[in-house]
Structure formats: structure tokens, C-alpha cells
């Protein structure tokens, strides 16, 4: 179906290994990346899912101190859990980069040197928060206070509430997390990314991009009204250590740059595995980069990562798919408040296909604040999957009698709407197109009215979202050799198709025990005294 074969590097933000992944993480980032990769492969493009573990932030350090274990041991424990959570919902990245690896450290230093050689890094006088009691500099979440813009609780790098990149000198009422003492400021020399020099070129590139308007306008506003150089290094023990120049030697790169650069390490690894030249690949007009993230990563991806690509002579990302914070019963998912559902645990009770469908359904556009996980929605998702399966099973035993027709014009329009939505990473809109295809076609009618082509295309549209379900029914109707595809062509049932579908339904009703436990945990009225 694709005209010019593209290569997509699809890069969800690397999780910090300080815990497992809850459904907010999965639905907001990793599932959407997985769906996009599966769609691009289905229509004939090359697509790679590249992510990793951001091991140099302070969250893993804090967790290790709490457990009384080494940071490396705790990181490994949680990386194993993260990968298990992804597997539980049928997500398997092609490349998973550990930022603690020598491969990544070498790559990060190479990027830094490229930016420096191009004149985009300057050493400037700056200030870093310091704890007199502990006699150490504070970094990242080891320093907390209030955002100078919105007054929300924030750490020393970023306000998750409004997305502001915070300078240490502007953080209000800073406190050292380990000891609780107030922090002071000490002068340091610091590497900065010179955004002032790149701003005109970056502004034009973002203005001319195909990014969603809500994202594009936020970044252009920053460039035109709040532009400043951003710190790239600080005094902190863990990370990618700079060796030159002497004034910043021994400092480590901020994880908001280095940690996010794991995508670059992953792409370089893929190029080596394929015998391809990294520079040729990155400069090819057929190469597209897409980043998937939650809103807390928005600023440093749309500004920092984008600028680091442009400053090195590469195209800016093809798109950024950003999600608002996922909510659970109206409140933000929170591990600290135990207001979360863990992906690997819930997948033992609820079929992963139902989970994938529901999480994709509620992943709405950035800025809409409309992605609330509720038990009623999960029940409806299971019922919807059940409806799809019931309609498909009406044709069981009549495979050989299915006609092979071209799609009606109305269904072709549904497919076109679906493709447009998928290409723009608007998965919720793609699901609307699937519903229109289903309701408008012969599948939804009581009488047998669907053709082989209609069934195959319907399963193909479902495939990126619920791949296991689509594969099972595709093999049932068309044999083990069936492959998803959206071409309006003949699809003949194979000799090895089955006459009876006796496999259990994916869309089984949500167990009463699960609903009861969920409501007790997340909806029980607080005890009165």
C-alpha cells in the first residue's frame, strides 16, 4: 500500500528504573508507539521500536538508598520488571538501550562533541543548589521546591505541572530531599546549549513541521518569548562524565539531554546491525523519527532533542506524540499514593487485547485532558471486543462460501480515515474509523453479508491495536499464511482454514471479583471518625 518505502524510528521516552510500569505509563507512551510501529510495518514501511532505561536520574538513586542496596542492583531489578510489564501487554521493543552502558556513554559524548564543534555549546557562569549540611551539590529530584511560574511543587530541573525548564537560581524554597535542609546556591562553571544562536533556524523548522498545532505553538512561544540557553552539565556522581574542557571536567551531562539521547544510541546500533551508515540513514529523506512521551517530557523532546538534531545537520523529528497525564478515576496515576494499576498484574486477570483496546481508546489528544481510566470504560471495551468476535464467528463454518469483492466506496473512505489517523498517531480517531467500518459493513448485520475482503481488511485494521486477536481470526478464516494488509484485493480462504472456532473469546466479561476489588480500592468512601 505504501508508495515510497520509509524507515521509521519510533522512540518512546525511556522509563526511569525506579519501579514497575503502571497502566498510565503503558497507555500514554509505550502502547501508542507499539501500535504505530505495527501499523507502519503492515502498510509496507520499515519501522523500529527504540527505547531504553534512563538510569542516571536521581529517582533510582533515591530508591536504592531507601532499600539499602546498590544503585546498579536496583536499576537491574526494575529494568527486569519494566520489560515484564511491556511483555504482559504484547509490547517488545526492537532495541532497549541502558544509559549506563559504555555504548551509550560513548555515543552521548560523541553527540556533545559534535554540538561543541558546531559552536552550540558555551561555558557560562551559573549556580547550582548546594546542601551545607550534607556538603554536596544537589541535582534533579534531590532538590525540590516550588515552580517560579505556577508555584506548583517541582524539582530543580522541570515543573511537571506547567512544563517549565527551571534554573536552579529560580526554584523557590529549595530543600534537599535526603536531609530536608534548605539549600543554598553556589557559583559554578557550566556547559550550556546556546539556543539563542540556533533559535531562528529552529523556529522556522518547527513552524514548517507537521507537528500538531497545540505542540507546535507551545514550543514556538518559548522560542519567541522565553528563549535562553539551557544547562547541559552539573555536579552529580552518576552519568556520562565530561573530560573536557577542564572547567567542566568531572561534571555529568543532564539526563534531560543524555538520557533522552538513548534513541540515538539505539539507531546507531540498528545501523551497525544492518550494515548501514548511520549518517546516511539519518540524512535520508526516507528516514522519519517519531517520539512518544508524557507531557512531563514535552519540553526537552520538542526543544532539546529537536535542537540537538538540527544543530548536527539532521532533520527535526517527523512528529511528537504527547499525552496528558493518564488519570485513574479522575486523579493522576501515582505510585507514591498507591493510586495505580500495574500492567503485569492486571494482565493476569484481564486479557491483554482488552487492555490494549481500552488504553488506546482513551489516549486522547494532548491538551484535551480526556484520558481517564474507569472501570465502566474497561467493561465497555470488553463488550466491544466481544461484539466484534461475535460478528466474526457468525461466519464460522462458511469460510469457503465467502465471496471476494472489492470494498464499497463508503468502506474505502473508512480505511482512508483510519490510515490518516494512524499516520498522525491519533489512535483514538483510528478506532472511530474501525467502528464506522464495522457498523457500515456486512459484519454488523444479523444476516451473513460480509465478504472475505471485508473480513480481512477489518482484521487488518484491528491488527496494530489487538495483534493477537487479529492473527487468530485471520488464521481461522484465511489460513496460517494470512498477513494483515489494507489493499482492496482478493483474499481467498485457504485450504487449512478451520470450520469451527472453538477458542475462548478475548472479550470475556470483566470478572466480578476484579470489579469489586477495583471499586473497593479506588472508590471506597474514606473512613469517618
TrEMBL record:
Q: Name one Pfam family in it.
A: tRNA-synt_1g
Checking Gene3D superfamilies in the record gives: HUPs, Methionyl-tRNA synthetase, Zn-domain
Tell me where on the tree of life, at the top rank, the source sits.
Answer: Bacteria
Q: Which reaction does it catalyse?
A: tRNA(Met) + L-methionine + ATP = L-methionyl-tRNA(Met) + AMP + diphosphate
Query: Family per UniProt?
Result: Belongs to the class-I aminoacyl-tRNA synthetase family.
PANTHER family, alphabetically?
METHIONINE--TRNA LIGASE, METHIONINE--TRNA LIGASE, CYTOPLASMIC
This protein is called Methionyl-tRNA synthetase
Give the originating organism: Mesorhizobium robiniae
Q: What is the lineage of its organism?
A: Bacteria, Pseudomonadati, Pseudomonadota, Alphaproteobacteria, Hyphomicrobiales
